[in-house]
Amino acid sequence: STNARTGSSYFSYVTSPISHAMDGQSRKHRILMVSDFFFPNFGGVESHIYYLSQCLLKLGHKVVVMTHAYGKRSGVRYVTGGLKVYYVPWRPFLMQNTLPTLFMTFPIIRTILIRERISVVHGHQAFSTLCHEALMHARTMGYKVVFTDHSLYGFADVGSIHMNKVLQFTLADIDQAICVSHTSKENTVLRSGISPDKVFMVPNAVDTAMFTPSSNRLSCDEIIIVVISRLVYRKGADLLVEVIPEVCRLFPKVRFIVGGDGPKRVRLEEMREKFSLQDRVEMLGAVPHAQVRSVLISGHIFLNSSLTEAFCIAILEAASCGLLTVSTRVGGVPEVLPDDMIVLAEPDPEDMVRAVRQAIDILPGIDPQIMHRRMKKLYSWDDVA
């Protein structure tokens, strides 16, 4: 109820002089979502933008997405529900981020704002170059802007110091900021120096109609642990390298399915070879979002090993499919699920093995259908919109 109240008020507060002309249309807004991260790339930010846009369209708002070109995907495209996407002809140079140019993007951003008669600009993700430039140019032109932060950052390393300075510059004049967890809100306020009164907590959600449990309950003769994540340092891929062999040694009937790709995949492949676990650790590579459910429902337990996480949509998707979750106790993860739906562990191999053991012990008492029904009541993209 609090989430729904917060979510529904967030666009009614963010009004613009341009939107006054639309008072006769029950204050329907024309919203531009901007980020370097959108489909066909896969991740939590991409899913958030897509599902939020779909729900806002259903409410009668006009929504347009602006991102950079992905391979041959350039120009204007339409996706499900009539969502219009501008894949501007900028190529990413590092981790799907476009090269920061400050003013080179202004002409095309201005063109889109005027052509689509935008009233609200909504930027996503602190390390999206396109997001920062769009927010800056939109405020220069007098538009109302909203920023959503999806990640946690530190304060001591060089990269975090630089990113926090950029954030202070960009968010100095925004109207509102949104964070996906209370931990994320505190982190963003400290990093950006923005007034806490301007920052609101609106959680992520999950499409429970898409992520449903299997109609046939899996046998517990063989316990399958599913991992779906980008295989990078921040997502705890190095922890998996130590946890998986130990779990396989302690529990002969456990098998792992690992979905995802990234620079740390090589380490997991080496671990599999070193401990001769080819028949017990299946590496799927990158999993398209449309196929995530089919991977999840083949398992009993979902394992998340992130070292830092503002909010983990993958945990919601797994719980909606009826999987018991084992996760590191980091960032906003403890806020995501009730205690009886998740087993938390410190980001330490020994404690994670302990958590997996605990999850295996309580697994017989888990009913996937009951868990799915609980998720339908807890999380909804309609409430977020």
In short, what is this structure?
Keywords: Glycosyltransferase, GPI-anchor biosynthesis, Transferase. This protein is α/β, with parallel strands linked by helices.
Q: Can you tag this structure with a few keywords?
A:
385 residues; alpha/beta; Rossmann fold; eight-stranded mixed β-sheet; 13 helices; disordered N terminus
| The CATH superfamily title of the largest domain | Glycogen Phosphorylase B
CATH architecture of the largest domain: 3-Layer(aba) Sandwich
Describe the strand arrangement of the main beta sheet, using strand numbers: 3-4-2-1-7-8-9-10
| Total count of helical runs of at least 4 residues | 13
Give Rg in angstroms.
21 Å
Major sheet characteristics: 8 strands, mixed
Question: What structural class results from the helix and strand content?
Answer: alpha/beta
Spans of at least 5 consecutive residues whose pLDDT stays below 50 are: 1-25
What does this molecule look like?
This protein is of the alpha/beta class and 385 residues long. The chain folds into two domains: 2-201, Rossmann fold; 223-381, Rossmann fold. Helices cover 36% and strands 20% of the residues. It is built from 13 helices and 16 strands. It has helices at 2-13, 44-58, 106-115, 129-140, 158-170, 182-192, 237-250, 265-274, 292-296, 313-320, 349-362, 368-378, 381-384; strands spanning 30-34, 62-68, 75-79, 83-88, 92-94, 97-98, 120-124, 144-149, 176-179, 199-201, 223-228, 254-259, 281-285, 301-304, 324-328, 342-345. The strands form three sheets. The protein has an eight-stranded mixed β-sheet with strand order 3-4-2-1-7-8-9-10, with helices on both faces. Helix 3 (106-115) packs across helix 4 and helix 7 (237-250) packs across helix 11. The longest helix has 15 residues, at 44-58. The two termini are 13 Å apart. Residues 1-25 have low confidence and may be disordered. It holds the Pfam family Glycos_transf_1. It comes from Aegilops tauschii subsp. strangulata.
